[in-house]
Amino acid sequence: MYYKALLAISLLCLLSRPASSQEEFNYEESKVPAYALPDPFVSLNGKLIGSVQEWEHQRRHEILRLFEDHVYGQVPGSMDNMRFILASEDGEAMNGDAHLKEIDIEVSRNGQSVTVRLILFIPKEAPKPAPVFLLINHRDPENIDPTRKVKMGFWPAEAIVDRGYAAATFHVMDVSDDNNETFQEDILETLYPEQLEKKNGMRGLGAWAWGAMRAMDYFETDPMIDAGKAAVVGHSRGGKASLWTGAQDSRWAITISNNSGCGGAALSRRRFGETVRRINTNFPYWFTDNFNQYNGKEELLPLDQHMLIAAIAPRAVYVASASEDQWADPKGEYLSLFHGTRVHREIYQMDGGFSADLPHPESPVHLPYAGHHIRAGKHNLTPYDWEQYMDFASKLFGFSNE
User: Fold this and answer.
1) Catalytic residue status for 379
2) Is the pTM of this model over 0.90?
3) Alpha helices, DSSP H only, in 313-380?
4) Is 321 assigned a catalytic role?
């Protein structure tokens, strides 16, 4: 199945920004409460973490378990079978510039199966195997039209291919609808029904991350794709899922969060723009049930989002914001990146660092292990954002594709 028929996505968009409520939303730095961030370098038993071995064999696992239990839920990997079916192919796509493959990823467990459609454009002129960008798409399916009759800046597949990258995507409807009434109908009820009974069980965003991991499973089998040079990209709620994907799955070379805000890159303790209470109220199906206990009590969280970024180390991470997207808290996203990448610098001894001051719009900062930019404008994923991501990847992977 390619993906299910269009749902009323526009109704969800109405929920993604402030609604009338007794809760007041803060957009003033002077009103950000005093807060102290949990220290990524201190283990649960109070031990100071100072070596790569301690980080990789103890602290990183503790952090992932904290996020599983309190925010995103478990990500089960058990399955009985997985197979990749070439649903369609066009060796002359994009006017001969790309090789199009549409792959059905069929996963079976306990006699039930789910199919995720992966759309993949591989550049024909670039050296093989090709590095790849995977977009977790939660918007209208026409944003990722495989026929390319409809082209949108949200997924500029032609521009990606022109730079020498494979352009891949899947729609989240294939794994979990972005809808509180039907989110459980796909992999949750079909493959992992036991997760719905757990307070720390998988929910919507975890299911999307699961889908991205299955795409990586396919990349590892395709000789035309360099799975070791793969980036996962998500915007807004997709950016939250992208960060969780990169933290959970160490196969991704680059994890990219675009305007992901609360529950994504932004620090929860700042209570700036969207809050934990608001996101849990509007989207109760995104996060594990345990996350609700921190509504209005962010200071009680045993973690904050900088620790999610830390869990991605030593692999590369990129956080981007938009100047007019105060609901997503661009400063909070940047501070999370600043504090989270301490692990890259202090544990893995990587060169370069971010300034403590928020960069100006249109002033990208690309370090060997992390990137950041603020785009002028509103909440969106645009061709400008994609150009920055590809510039960053080109430097990281060490090849010229200008």
Assistant:
1) yes
2) yes
3) 330-340, 342
4) no
